[in-house]
Design brief:
Largest sheet: 7 strands, mixed
Distance between the termini: 23 Å
Shape: globular
Strand content: 15-25%
Radius of gyration: 21 Å
CATH class of the largest domain: Alpha Beta
Number of helices: 12
Order of helices and strands: HHEHEHEHEHEEEEEHEEHHEEHHEH
Mean pLDDT: 97
Helix content: 25-40%
CATH architecture of the largest domain: 3-Layer(aba) Sandwich
Number of domains: 2
Low-confidence stretches: none
Bound molecules: pyridoxal-5'-phosphate
């Protein structure tokens, strides 16, 4: 699905030199690269505070802890996403409330969101799925009306730009009270291990979060709150600092591959190609098709037999996962997600796709799903 080896070969000199510098310095934790990457990312995102941490799942958990969410508080998120979002809600003994998504963008459905709000609702977690932003203008309006926190799960859309109706532009992850991301190797900005970060423009929240990632310490060995141990190590920060200047070109390369795919499938009536919303650029963390003739599973097998990597993101809606089933959920509320899980298939998407590869992939898909 991703070709991390070719990407590494193209940046080997600078990355190897940075890693060597960390090894020579032996500042493996909290070394200078962590601060430098933090500052670079703050500048890139146009956000006041970036708090690096160990992974994207921790970032979500720490964000929720930092906002002071407590047992029984309801947190609304999308039914069609990776489980990390709902996992941390469960771990913190908050109550997850799952809502359906839009069929074209796969992002949180705003009417479903409005319907899910109760007096116990405390936060909304829009997930910017597959590389484009949820309808943040609407999410923020709902949040304002009901006095709710907004936590953007931006693990899949770092680098995407959102345009509000008044023309204001913001980077994905910087619009809510807090945003989170992951630097897992296959993400658009990936390191060579685990990594993550939290973003906020709120000075007080940033201070709280910086202590929370480090055992709740604001002064060494004085623990003011219950925290966690969640650090971005120096080697990963060095890799990320080297790769951040390339993020926009990486997103462009993904968009170019996506355009090739979309053009090649344009006349295929059994395929729905990814929609691009008017308010968000798409950074194509995934390129996800809907196969509407019922042959998705057969296509999955056929592509594997032809050595074309592909994946079903996601095969089971969160509300139907063993760990997250609940009598509160009603199948009628998840008609779109229930349909998508039978139709979606993601094709190879990364920065090093050649025209030859794209041509072979699209030909193979079109011949099978004719
Ligand atoms: C990858 C991902 C995460 C978790 O990130 P990790 O760094 O793997 O913990 C969370 N949410 C979404 C939507 C993701 O895609």
């Amino acid at each position: 699905m991703v070709d991390l080896q070719s990407q590494y070969q193209n940046i080997k000199d600078v990355v190897d030199a940075s890693i060597q510098e960390v090894l020579n310095s032996s500042a493996y934790i909290n070394g200078p690269y962590v601060k430098e990457f933090q500052a670079d990312l703050e500048k890139y995102l146009g956000v006041k505070h970036v708090i690096p941490c160990a992974n994207g799942t921790d970032a979500l958990q720490i964000a929720m802890m930092g906002l002071g969410l407590e047992q029984g508080d309801e947190v609304i998120t999308a039914d069609f996403t990776f489980a990390a979002t709902v996992e941390v809600i469960g771990l913190l003994k908050l109550t997850p409330v799952l809502v359906d998504v839009e069929p074209d963008t796969f992002n949180m459905d705003i009417e479903a969101l409005k319907k899910a709000i109760t007096p116990k609702t405390k936060a909304i977690v829009p997930v910017h799925l597959f590389g484009q932003c949820a309808n943040m203008e609407a999410v923020l309006a709902v949040a304002k009306e009901h006095n709710l926190f907004v936590i953007e799960d931006n693990a899949q859309a770092i680098g995407a730009d959102y345009t509000f109706s008044d023309g204001t532009k913001k980077k994905a992850g910087t619009m809510g009270n807090v945003g989170t991301t992951s630097f897992f190797p296959s993400k658009n900005l990936g390191c060579y291990g685990d990594g993550g970060a939290i973003f906020t423009n709120d000075d007080e929240l940033a201070h709280t979060l910086r202590g929370m990632v480090n055992h709740g310490m604001y002064k060494r060995y004085y623990h003011d709150v219950v925290g966690v141990n969640s650090r971005l190590d120096s080697v990963q920060a060095a890799v990320l600092k080297a790769k951040l200047p390339l993020l926009d070109s990486y997103c462009d390369a993904r968009r170019e591959a996506a355009m090739y795919y979309t053009e090649a499938f344009a006349t295929n009536t059994n395929i729905i190609t990814p929609a691009i919303s008017v308010f968000s650029t798409h950074v194509f963390h995934q390129y996800t098709l809907r196969i509407t003739n019922g042959k998705r599973d057969e296509l999955h097998q056929h592509l594997l037999e032809n050595n074309i990597p592909n994946a079903i993101y996601y095969p089971v809606p969160l509300h139907a996962q063993k760990a997250y089933q609940d009598d509160r959920y009603n199948e009628d509320d998840f008609t779109i997600t229930n349909q998508l899980i039978d139709e979606v298939i993601s094709l190879p998407m990364h920065t090093e796709l050649s025209e030859e590869q794209l041509s072979f992939i699209t030909k193979t898909v079109n011949e099978f799903v004719g």
